[in-house]
Amino acid sequence: MFPAASVVAETAPTAAEIDWRPRSELPESVRSTLPAFCEGGYLPSHMSMEAAGDGSGAMFGSAPDAGQPLEASGLSARYELDSELYLQGDVRMRQGRFTVTGSEARYNQVDGTVSVAGPLVSRGDAFLLTGERADYDVNSGRFDINTATFLLHDAEMRGSAGSLSRIAEDQVLISEGSLTTCAPNQNDWSIVASDIHLDQGEGFGTARHVRLRIKDVPVFYWPYASFPIDDRRKTGFLYPSFGTSNAGSGAFLSVPYYLNLAPHYDATLTPQYIHGRGLFNEVEGRYLSPWGESVLQLGYIGNDLEYQNEFPGEDGERWALDFTTRAGFGGGWSAYGDYSVVSDEEYLSDLNQTLEINRATHLQRRGGARYQDSSQYFEAYLNGYQTISDRIAERNKPYAQLPEVIYGMTTDLGPVETNLESQYTYFYRDNAELTGLDRANGQRLRAIPEVALPLRELWGFTRPSVSLDYTRYELEDYELGSAGFDRTVPVFEWDSGLYFDRQSSLFDIPYNQTLEPRLYYAWADADADQDDIPDFDSAIRSFSFDQLFRRNRFTGGDRVGDANQLTVALTSRFNDLMTGAERARFSIGQVHYYDDREVSLMGLGADDRSDSPLAGEILLRPLETLDIRSSGLWDPDTQQTEEGRSQLIFHSRDYRYLASLGHTYSRNELEQSDIGAVFPVTDRVSLIGRWVWDSQLDRTVGSLAGIEYNNCCWSVQVVHQNAFTDDQQLESRVLFQIQLKGLGGSGGSSDRISEAIYGFDERERRRFGGVETGYN
To answer: Cα separation of 153 and 774, whole Å?
Structure first.
C-alpha cells in the first residue's frame, strides 16, 4: 500500500490542465488556426511528449509488447530475489511501447502485476492519462486506474472517471465518468454517465445512464447513447432541428437519425413534426461506387392538414423524390442521371424551404453518357421535365428530348483547322390539345462543319473561318406543308485581337498592364422567313459582353440569325507581378450592324438599329479578400442604362467578417438591391443579416436577421427569416441552431444562412474543428 499517495494526488493537475495553454503561450502553428473566440488550446500530442521528455511514442491505446522485458527505474530501489521489486521516487516503467510514471511502484514477479502510486501519468501521441493509483498486468496488458482524468488530443475531449480500465489495445472502460470539449475548469456542458466505453479502433464511444449537464445542472437523460471520438462516421441520432413559421407550418421539430450502413453507403432518416400539418418524413441515401456517387432523397407526409384547409377537396398526401448519380469509367467516358418529381405545385414552398426568392416552375429529368478526348466529344442523353406550375400554358411547356445525341470533333491539317458540331434530337410533347406549329413533334438533325485558319503569336491572334449551318427536320403532326424539309446557312467569321503590355508600379507594387483590342466580324446568310419552323428549344440570348462575340442571337437550333456585323471591343488588365493575381479588369465593346436583322422568334429578335448598346464589365480585386464586379448595358441612342448588375463581396482571411452588396437592374422589368453581412460585435457574439429590396414592387422581398454566440466548446444561432412566396406574401420563420463542439449540432439555421450569404459555409467549416456527426 501507498499511504501518502492520495494526499499527493489531490494536488496533481488533471490531464487537460497539463497540456492546456493560454493563447499567448501556444506555438504559432497552433495559434494561427485557433478561432478568435477560443482563449487557449491544447498542445499537439507530439509537442507535449517532447516537452515531457518522452520520445517513446507510446500511446495509451497501444498494447504493451507482451513478452518483452519490463524496464523500470527510480531514485531508490529494494529488490527481493524472485519475489518483488519496490521502487520509490520518480518512478518510470516501460514495456515495449507502454510507459507510465509515478511516485512509487511494486512489481510482483510471481504473478506479473505492477502497482503504481500517483500522481501517475501515461502519455501518448493521442492520449494523456493521469490517476491516483494503477494496477498493471505485464502478461495481459490490462491497466486499471483509480480517480483518473484523461485527454483525447484529436477530439480535444477531456474527462474524469472514478475508475478507468484499458482492457485491450484500443478499448477503454470508464466508470462514473464525464466527458466535455470545454476548456479545463469550464464545464459549460458535459456528458455524465455511469459506464462509458471508448473504442479507439472504431472511433466512437458508448455510454449508459447518460445525463447532459449544463453548468453542472442535469437537463436531459438518455438510458443509452453513443458518440464519435474522431472524424469517422457513426450510426446514431443527430441533433434536432427546430423553428417556427407563420405560413401555416407553425412550429416544427425534426430529429435526424444517421445510418452508417457500410463504408460505401449510408442513409439519414429525418422524421419532422410540423404543427398544423402533421408528421413529415424525409430520407436521404448515398451510395459510393468505384465509379462515382449516387444520392436518393425522398419526402412524404400522409395527411397534410394545412394543405387540405388551403385547398378543399385535395388529398393531404404529398411527396417528393430527387435522384442524382455521377460516374466516371475512365478512358474519357462518364455518365450521369438527374430525376426529380413532386406531388403538387406547392410542395417546394411548403415543405422544402429555402432562401431562394424565385421558385422552380419545371423539374428536370436527365440521364446520359459522355465521351471526350483531346480531339472529339460525344454525348447521348434523355431529357424531360415536370411542369409543376399550373399557370404555365400547354404551348409554353418545354419539349422532352428522347433522345439527344451530340458529336463534335477537331482536326489539325497543318495550318488549317477543321471542326464539326453535330446534333440529333427527337422532340416530344403531348400536343393533342394544340394546333398549328405548337402541335408538331419530330426529329431534327443539325450539323455545322467549319474550316478555320488560326494564327496565334505573343502579340496577338487572328482566326478567319467559314462554316455551313445545316438543319434537317422530319416532323409529325405538322400542318403547314411537307413534314420533311431542311435549312442551310453559310457563315463567315473573323476573330482577331492584339496584345500590348507595359510594366509599372502603383503604391510600390509592381504590376503589368495589358491593352487588348479585339475585332470580331460575323456574316450569316440566313433566310429571313423561318416562322414555319417549330420552336422546340430556341430562345433569344440575353445580351451581355460575352454575346458580343457570338454570331447567332438565338439559343437552341430552331432559329439561325442573319448577321452582317462587326464587334469592336477593348479589354485592359492589371496583374500583380508579385503574386500573379489579376487586380483589375476593364472591358467594353459594341456591335455595329451593316444590315437589318430580319429573323425573329415569336415576333422578337428582329431589329433595324445600326449599333448595339455598349456592353461592359469591370472587376476590381484590390485585396485577396475583396471582389468588386459590375456589368451592364448602356444605350447611347436613348442615353439610358438597359441592364446592370453590381456586386461587392468581402471576407476577412479567417471568414469571421463577411459582407456582400448587390444591385440588379433591368429597365422596365426588375430592380433589386441586396445586402448581407456577418459582423462580429465581440470575439464571441456576431450579428447576421441579409435584406433584399425590390424597387418595382416597392417592398422587401426577402430578409434574414440573427445573432450568433460562440465560445470554444459550444455555439448558438437564432435567426428570423422572411421569404417571398408565389402568392406575393412574406413568409416568416424563426430558426435555431445549438452546436456542442465535438458532438454536432441542431442543423436548423446554418444551411439556410449559407444559401443567403456568400462565404458562410466556409466560415462554418473553419468555426469548429473536430467531429460533427451527432450523438445517439
So the answer is: 19
Inter-CA distances, 238 with 262, 734, 744, 745, Å: 18, 20, 7, 7
Confidence category of residue 60, pLDDT binned at 50, 70, 90: very low
Q: How far apart are CA 355 and CA 748, in angstroms?
A: 13
The dihedrals phi and psi of 754, each to the nearest 5 degrees, come to -60, -35
CA angle 441, 445, 448 (to 5 degrees): 145
The pLDDT of 573-594, averaged and rounded, is: 94
What pTM value is reported for the model? 0.78
pLDDT in tens, 402-417: 999 999 999 999 999 9
Phi, psi for residue 624 in degrees, rounded to 5? -65, -20
| Positions of E strands within 200-239 | 204-214, 217-228, 236-237
Question: What is the number of structural domains in the chain?
Answer: 1
The pLDDT of residue 774 is 37
ω before 403 within 30° of 0 (cis)? Answer: yes
**Quick check: 702 and 724 in contact, CB under 8 A?**
yes
**Peptide linkage before 680 cis (omega within 30 of 0):** no
Q: What is the CA radius of gyration of the chain?
A: 35
pLDDT for residue 61 is more than 50: no
- 653 assigned to some structural domain: no
118-123 long-range contacts, CB within 8 A, separation 24+:
118/5, 118/8, 118/9, 118/12, 119/8, 119/9, 119/12, 120/145, 121/15, 121/18, 121/52, 122/58, 122/60, 122/98, 123/48, 123/49, 123/52, 123/54, 123/58, 123/60, 123/99
The answer to the question of residue 187 being in a domain is yes
What H or E segment, with its residue span, contains residue 282? Answer: strand 278-288
Q: Give the separation between CA 114 and CA 106, rounded to whole angstroms.
A: 6
* 51 phi/psi in degrees, rounded to 5: -65, -35
313 CB-contact burial (10 Å; exposed 0-12 / middle 13-18 / buried 19+):
exposed
Q: Is 221 inside any structural domain?
A: yes
State yes or no: pLDDT of 566 exceeds 70: yes
- Which residue did the predictor score with more confidence, 752 or 492? 492
**Gap between the Cα atoms of 566 and 602, Å rounded:** 26
Specify the pLDDT at position 592. Answer: 97
Which amino acid would we find at residue 394? Answer: E
Q: Give the residue numbers spanning the domain of 218.
A: 5-70+126-226
Q: Is residue 214 part of a domain?
A: yes
Residue 77, burial from CB neighbour count under 10 angstroms (0-12, 13-18, 19+) = middle
Task: Give residue 422's region: left, alpha or beta (phi > 0; psi -120 to 50).
Answer: beta
